[in-house]
User: Fold these one by one.
Assistant:
Number 1:
Amino acid sequence: MTTPSPIRLTLPLTPEAARVLKVGDVVLLDGDAVATVGMPTQKRMVAEVEAERELPLFLRDGTFFHMGVSYEDSDRRPGAVHYVNPTTSSRFNHLMPTLIRGLRLTATGGKGGLSQESVDAMREVGCVYFSFVGGASALLSEGVEAVTDCAWRDLIMQFRLNRLRLSGFGPVIVAIDANGNSIYERLMSSARERLPEIMRSLRPSQNNETD
Amino acid sequence: MAITYELVKEVTANLYDWSLRRIPESSKAEFRKALASETEPQARQTLAFMLDSAERAETTGKFLCSDAGVPSYSIKIGSGARMEGDIRQAIVDGFAELTRTIQPPLLRFVTNPLTNERSFHGKDMPLVSWDLVGEGDYLDITCAPKALGGGRWAAVEILVSPSLDEIERCILEIVLRAGGQHCPPVVIGVGIGGTFDHAAKLSKDATLRPFGARNPEPRVAEMEERLTRAVNQMGFGPMGVGGSTTTFGVHVEYASGHGFTPVAVSFNCWINRRTRARIYNSGVVERIE
């Protein structure tokens, strides 16, 4: 009952490399990723993509994470990283399909997963979703070497588009793969299916007659 | 002697700071139990990573999470407590000073709900609830900051003359809706009865109870055990990517009410930020958690 050692990958992935990954794969990440937790940020991104304008940070065929970043910012240039931590991706369900297709993302991630519309978009373009452990900032932050760039400085720090250089970031888990498989969808359907049986098993000896 | 503005300001600010850097002892104990009982290898690996990270945060003074959470205090006032100065203002001022000086700096997360502007202050910040309890000569202060991931899945449903089965079904449906989104293994607080607001407060208070302590009424304690088993059978697991450790415990509190029965359910993520101290009239500060 041991887990296999993590696969080491460098970001950005090619769509072909993304398609090879399977739900449940455990991965350590190196390379380049852009991260934000901002709702206004992603609304602005959608507006730019829909208007076919380039984003201020290059993100085409790239990696886009739902992750908060705190860093030294005294001379208006990103400096040392204080800490990072994922945020709940599902609150951006309505924006992500446009971003995945429009930017042809090959990897995204955060925590909590994305809805079926995003799963479909990911399958089309060849993109995976990585699940990070939330609240494990102390260890997760050690995999972020630097904030190499940031855009949209009018927004608060964690809402900006922050470009990161990762080194051994994770382990993270492939929770949605590029072939239409989603751990979140599978677990939710299975829990929903089991609920009646779980309810029945609550009081096996009493025949459920309580009133 | 009295409980002074200065003391409350210092203690409440410290409680918040401490809560950002260490998880409660009873949570650590639950992690160790789950590492032995969880059968999914990947879920065990996630649990081990969580516990390692929490230990790293505690020993190096790092934050557990980038979302420091809305500052939230539950204060129990002994009837013998004597206070000097504006105690509510002390909490406001302590938090304001902390956000200016804390290292590493906090990200802005206090959000005006009407404009979505973020800062470190705002209306009713910090959130504080006050209860009068017994005859003690102290303030018993719990700080439990609430982050977005754990805060957003709470719900209150109002049932009419429900059976116990219907109440439990309602609880499990709220739990199912949240899935594994709230950074499990969570603590689940359930408040049943009273009024809308009272049930919500009972639910919140239930999340503050340390793991391992059951409700003193056997009927309710059995319900807690039953619901804990049921939630873990759903299979969401640590971080919602599968496993049998979705909750470390369902805690239930209830109050009498009328024929309409509010059922409130709230969650605290695995880091379960919670610190607690008592300030006595003598000026002695006793750190409890």
Number 2:
Amino acid sequence: MFATILFYAAAATLIGAAIAVITVRNPVHAVLSLILAFVSSAVLWLLLEVEFLAIVLVLVYVGAVMVLFLFVVMMLDVNTTSLREGFARYAPVGAIVAGIVILELAGLIWWRNEGIPVDRVLVPRDAAYSSTAELGKVIYTEYLYPFELAAMLLLLAIVAAILLTMRKRPGIKKQDISAQVRVRREDRIKLVSMEAEKD
Amino acid sequence: MAAIQFIQGLWFALPDQLREVIVILVQILPLTVTVILCVAFLTYGERKIIGYMQIRVGPNRVGPKGWFQPFADTIKLVIKEVVIPANSSRFLFVVAPLLAIVPALATWAVVPLFPGFAIADIDAGLLYVLALTSLSVYGIILAGWATNSKYALLGAMRSAAQVVAYEIAMGFALVGVLMASGSLNLGKIVEAQSGGLFSWFWLPLFPLFIVYFISGLAETNRAPFDVAEGESEIVAGFHVEYSGVAFAIFFLAEYANMLLISALTAVMFLGGWLSPFAGDGLSFLDGTVLGLLRAPGLHWLCAKIAFFLFFFLWVRATFPRYRYDQIMRLGWKVFIPVTLVWIVIEGVLAALHVGPWST
């Protein structure tokens, strides 16, 4: 009973937040709604007793990715009125993309699951069952190669992102921090002992 | 007698789930009150300790030796007006301090307080800690943005970049702990360190221990990493426009975070509630009065937390504020490589069955 109430509350929050992401005018508010959506879906996963995935969702998306998102959105002064100008022109493209996404989701939810009884009740595991350990076992045995491939892909993205921002421009003044850290007192200050001046 | 029976009858008449909720609430309440009281006296302790370090007395007017100073401060802050700036985002301005305090208190749920007890003894405890500590930055960012002031926004931006940088080093340090203990459950992490002072993780994971504690300093925006406040450049950073209770909550959150980082460092690297004298070499003490020192318990955890809190204050009294680019350099170019190298070393040693983590 309690779990059902929690499920509907979290699901309603999730849908409401997801709608708010694309409807609110202020971009910062949109990012905050997205964060709320992530947290509510983490609650849904917790209700399914997959605590590892739920916490990782909060840790990675809410704790790191969305912080940077918020960071960027706050820094950019996004002008929403100029963004709205081309709405009618881009609407057909948007509709096509939305249609494809809906088709793909439908494929995932209905066609791929055909033949699997939908109305079956989830069997709760006993307390000794650790979904974290089970996930680890599957990832490092059965799905080892896809997992390693995904890791390589992420590494590639990191290297590429760093490469994009690394541009050497001649003639800019910048600090050499290691030289600054290496500096000793003797390089900067010279103590001289001299007679006290009497006047 | 009848009253007791009545209460018992009432208790067992409640539905099971409700009873569970009540038991958990009864555990949460004393812990939260204790944390908040500790925060109150931590502010007093900070002013006193830094005072003595700078050869002055510190607060000494309110109550005997200034002991009631925290209460005076609290009353002062509570009766002050909360000013909400005219062009601010009202809702976020009010919510931001709450977002700062909630993770600082909620993380205590998984901290093992004494043998076999944590309010929520969950298997993914370490991940829960990482997830919640990573949320605490939102309070600061939103406060900075909602205030609609350039100083506050600058403070928030600095804080966001800093917290993201140090969180990675912190996470990697905890990966080392995880590899050494073989569990994500904080209670099991403490048990994996059982033995004396030298079987705690601080010794085999020494670089990670140092990195974790310094990253903790940076995560809590404490000196010498307190550029998010940076009085000399950006007035008070993210909380420049906050006053009264709203400011008090930010203050509370910062100190509660210090308390939390101290507790977590104690749990991960200094054996939590374990006694430092529990090693086999000291077993001749059993049966004597000193044998009591060998017993694990809450008092050891408290002693270790107090030790790290003193470190926080000591560091603040000792070091000047870091320059911002050097903070970034330390986080990205020093700490992350150090933790990565140590994790690789640990992995190699574990594969070769050498060292304390060979099991």
Number 3:
Amino acid sequence: MREIVVVSGKGGTGKTSLSAAFSYLEGDNAIVCDCDVDAANMHLLLDASFSNQRDFFSGEVALIDKELCTNCGKCADVCRFDAISIADGQHVVDPISCEGCHYCSKVCKKDAIEMKTQKAGDIYTSDIKNETKMVHAKLGFGAENSGKLVAKVKQDAKLLALQKNKAYVITDGSPGIGCPVISSLSGANLVVLVTEATISGLHDLERVIKLVKTFNLKAVCIINKYDLNEEMTNSIEKFLKTEEIDVVGKLPYDETFTKALAMAQTIVEYDSNSKLAINIKNSWEKIKESVS
Amino acid sequence: MKITIASGKGGTGKTTISTNLTSYIASMGNSVVLADLDVEEPNSALFLQTKLLNTQTSNKMVPNWEEVDCTLCGQCAKNCNFNAIVAMPSEILVFPELCHSCYACSELCPTNSLPMTAARIGEIKKFKVDGFDFIEGRLDLGQEMAVPLIAQTIEYTTKNYPNHIKIFDAPPGTSCPVIEASRGSDFVMLITEATPFGLNDLILAVETMRVLDQKFGVIINRYGIGDASVEEYCQKEGIPIITKVQNDKEVAKLYSKGELLYKKIPHFKNSLDEIISFIGGIDA
């Protein structure tokens, strides 16, 4: 089983549309995994059933018992997150500011502070198009620990792939370079970088590649919207060459991406004989060669 | 006045709107400052002609083990709820990336063997741009926690520009970084596109704003492709639509080169005028 993680650094480059297209092409040979838990949306293209829901618990929040509390104020003194304030003469915790560090509960002389485990989100293993399954999640509103949720989603997808003896896990990664994307990348056999021929596309690609290199991961790249700015495409290709990263596809600026999305279809379903669809199929074949 | 430009989905046009809006407001003679809070992938600077004025290091406080008086009692590891400290038989190991700077290990240590010291997580840069100042927070690669740097960048901007209009270019998503970038603002503008992805991520962002009890409105970008579902949703929920920016490949082309748009594209300038007249009606 090989895990292929699609990431982009910058948003809006076509990462999810391409991940969904690859998933559709590979069908029941792969398990699909949506690690963009902050704003998950691959389910829209793959007609996910939202089955087999599980609660995901992570992080804690302090809760003050008014009956036991003497309002000595020690908790508020030690809190570094300004999470404890006084309302109507009573110390209370703002759950959004609370980091769950336990410091207040440890210094409370009256044992009036209890740490409550928070439900941080929901995880699903859904049936999706083309006879396969997708593990995906929904982070609770304002919840933290999306890195941990990403790790859990990936773990469940990999276990399922091993149980069902699948050839691939195709993972739609998170944006950025922080904790969720670091979780997304861990253990990947191949990273597919999706960038676009814009100045910010190149900038964010450079940063995400540095991250990929620190984890010693193998990567290939797809340049989307290459005809928006051919000069920029050249700069991106030159940069990739120095980083020894192969380009496995160059796709034109094409509103088919949006039209297919509006129909809740992957690009390869929407018009399977179009030049764009054939281009994407070729990229997927090259990706599979790179990871074999 | 503090305005945060945010979005659930990435790539919807936060940076385009933030940079153009700030430049346009400045060109009308107003005092305005722009801060890039997308510290993981800051790229507002790519669209501005900047001159660097100064750079300051951004730190977070982490415990630093001092062997001398330590009895290896292991209390610090028990007091850390983030697994950032491991007590070994002969030493204490600290993992700074996991530390949330709560100080519990340090202040509860019986022998004061874990003094808190500053550890670099990134930098805050101040630039001069034609007509306004621009502040950028930039997280070091390999750092996992963006929130402390976002908070410091907001604090820096608020302290140094108390009377300016402050425009914050937020990170994408709906979790902790966006919350940090949004709370404390007078108004949040959520940018979306009129597609099912745009709608899905807008709904998540709206729910987050409601949890925060934050005032917000919506800007629809790339209007004209996709479908009507975002508009219908906003109408049903009573969310103000601040402007609709027309879909235009010319916009994408100018963007790809890092150029400001409002000087060249009249319909884009009209949208900025609508945003500015909307801002005029916000109670701050």
Number 4:
Amino acid sequence: MALPKHASTLERIWHYIYLVICGLIFLFLIAPILIIIPLSFNAEPYFTFTQKMISFDPEGFSTRWYDLLLTFGMSAPDVARDGSWWADVWQNSAWVQAAKNSVIVGVFATIFATVLGTIAALGLSRPEMPYRRLIMAVLISPMIVPIIITATGLFFFYSSIQIAKWELFGWQIPYLGIILAHATLGIPFVIITVTATLVGFDHSLTRAAASLGANPRTTFFKVTMPLILPGVISGALFAFVTSFDEVVAVLFIGAFDEQTIPRQMWNGIREQISPAILSVATILVVISIMLLTVLELLRRRSERLRGMSPG
Amino acid sequence: MTDAANSLNHRPTQAELDLTTVDGTPLKVALANAQKRARQRALFLVLPLLLFVLITFLAPIGQMLLRSVYNPSFSDHIPNLSVWFDENPAGTKPDEAAYEALALDLRSMRADKTMGIAGTRINYDLPGSRSLFTSTARKAEKMEPPFQDAILAANKKWEDPKLWQVMRGASSAYTADFYLAALDRTRDVNGDIVSVDDDRKIYAANFLKTLFLAGLITFCCLILAFPVAHLLATLPLRQSNLLMIFVLLPFWTSLLVRTTSWIVLLQSQGVVNDTLVATGIVADESRIQMIYNQTGTIVAMIHILLPFMILPLYSVMRPINPSYVRAARSLGATSWTAFRRIYLPQTIPGMGAGGLLVFILGVGYYITPALVGGASGQLISNFIAFHMQKSLNWSLAAALATLLLLMVLLLYWLYDRLVGIDNLKLG
């Protein structure tokens, strides 16, 4: 992107203007996400920088909103912070409960989406797959169809089959409806990432394994799986994040006590937005930074693997 | 080489036709069988997921489509009236027989406690009817013939020909009336389709507004994404990967988090307004209202959808060979001409892919408008949610959702034709 030596003055000026424009757009992209991090440490219940914060006075900062995340909903928040206090947090804190629910729903939805999606992607990337285009379009559609439509349909469907009353050996499966809905929403991501990994997949490797006497199962676990694993993991991460961030389906089909983090945030933003929301948001931003790092490492690993594999 | 070419053209000799596998099947048949098996194996792998999606996604959508044309909440409770509606054509003035049927049905509704449900269905088309049903049903028990006088004595509103028209429409469980309502149309006394009053026209205008805003947001995204994608595509890979974080971090951050940050930034006591006041650009008493209105929706949605434009543009721009532009320059083109005539046409696939994707996602957006849109920034999705959660007119919600779905599917089909779903990439 360096300017050539023969560039005219006008071109030079334009080049620097262009760089400034790009810088501003990058700022537009990233600033809203980063700005909530310092604001979440505000000592006052405001959404802006106070005088004390601007002058870096330690009194202007506090972790009170993070503390509120733990204590909100506790039965006895004001006692000494010993083991039983933390047990109380684990049992009763509204945000901790929501986090637990989100993780349970996310993990099971991800397992469904990843297992089914990976197997299907293996079939879809075979050259002899019939009706490939149509099936692919159907499987990707949960990502394209507006979430409000999916949620509306699920609401009608689940109430007509009464999914909330389903039992397995007398045990009422919790979150079943939400898990299935989130799995469906995560499937397109798994399909897209795994088929993308399979594009560079050399099918003669599986034939070679078969000719050397490996049965299909061994071939899959010893040859195919290690090669497509980066794609599978990044698909799973996408599926998990989709579930972890999904609020509309939960609002429509979730039972009253099935609170997840996005649902709590949604209620918080709608009713009385408090800086506690910002501290949740900060935690979520940190989580997404970690996810991004994992994905980048996976991408590098995948590129290395492909560089090694023939073809 | 020539042998291979010849063998494609010449007719198979008898000897070749006689070629068989070890167990005696002709080669052609064996090949066809093998291919069939391979196809079945591929299909077999996809089948579990296809079934899963069929149950958890397509069936619910189907149920929603059904709900948009099927509403039995009135028709189920009027055995006598439906007979009268069948015997008399639309526009017939209700006679004593009609009122008798009505009185009998109201009595049975009272007995089953269903007059609220039935009344609600009529209430969708004629506000105020629910209380009419509940109050008259309460008196229906003691009514004596002639029923016409008795019912009209209970409430004069039963004379209204509009009410009878609505009841006739609702007397059949299958109806297209909810689509009419979703398009700001209704039926007049004679059953003809007419526009609703101007002050009740909401949805058609909102569909247009949704399309317009989605288009505007797509356009703004394109304008903002182009320079950034170009910069990323022309920088050395090491630097562009680093800058890519600025695009991918927002992409991976929770939607609610990003919406929250815009509330924090743009509200009247927020960071942007405070900065403007502190620098003296805006007076303290005239802080700008940037959130909870259309502006808030547009700004937040541009921010959220921008990565969906940058990523496809980037993946198209990266492989563009810079020597084309250099060649144009060396042949005397100015940098602007070289850009416009040589570079820009090569980026059109990326603009198409990103633009369609952003437009598709924008048309169906719900969360951001609901949280930062206020009254003026609501899109069609928000009306669907309103009818699902507040007004409880589920059939109208389903009809609106179906219209939105048709719009999105049309765009999706276009995307598949122009871009190909296989080319959808993430990060």
